[in-house]
Write a structure and sequence with these properties.
Number of strands: 0
Order of helices and strands: HHHHHHHHHH
Distance between the termini: 65 Å
Structural class: mainly alpha
Strand content: under 5%
Largest sheet: none
Number of helices: 10
Shape: elongated
Length: 251
Amino acid sequence: MTEPIKNIFDFPTKPKESMEERQTKAAVKFLELVDGYNLKNCPKDYESLKLEAIYLAGFAQYSTIILAQRCSIIHEKQLYLKDLNEDGTVKYKDFKSWVEGELSISRQTVYKYMDLYKYFGHIESLEVSNSYSKLIPLLPLLKSDNKEIPKRKIIVKYCDEIEIKSARKISDEALELKYKYGLLETPQEELLLDPEDIKAIEKISAKIASKSSDLMKHGEYPCLISVYDEEEAKILQRAAVKLRDELRSKR
């Protein structure tokens, strides 16, 4: 009796198939895909365009994680050494050169999805997911040597939430975790004002604090407009305008 397949990523290759037969079958499947979706049969109505765009986006992500699984096996078992030149010498001495020589996809993308497969490929709930790319921002946390990072908890959490959280939401949460566990330094606010402006504002602030304290001693609620004079008001206004303009220029 044939043992049931527990994981679609582990679907066995038929042992009787030759390399030529496998290549032919793969080519036929590719041509079927091209025949169904190509530059010449693009639909014109929005609903069809949207439907096909969603399908192709999902197919692209899913096919990439399947590619990553195959590449992971080739990398782990050093199967790239089986490729030989005509004179019998090894064609690729490392996995990097194999990727660059055999695949029509960037090396960075291959490694990124291999990492996704390493950490998430064994999760049964994700076997038919088309949202793997949402998890990419989590990879630095999972690859870190920091033992305080709850890696298993992160994997389980985002496997459960991958279909209900947007890519932006997961990315923002991953960023917070990177700050929390020291993978990134908390960004320091850049000073946008000149030292003279800062000194003037500090001087006015000290005056405001002093006058506010005196007013409160007499039971009066301090109104800032009555605390500083016209010249001080102009200084604050100029500083506010400068801050506004510099912030706008950085958007």
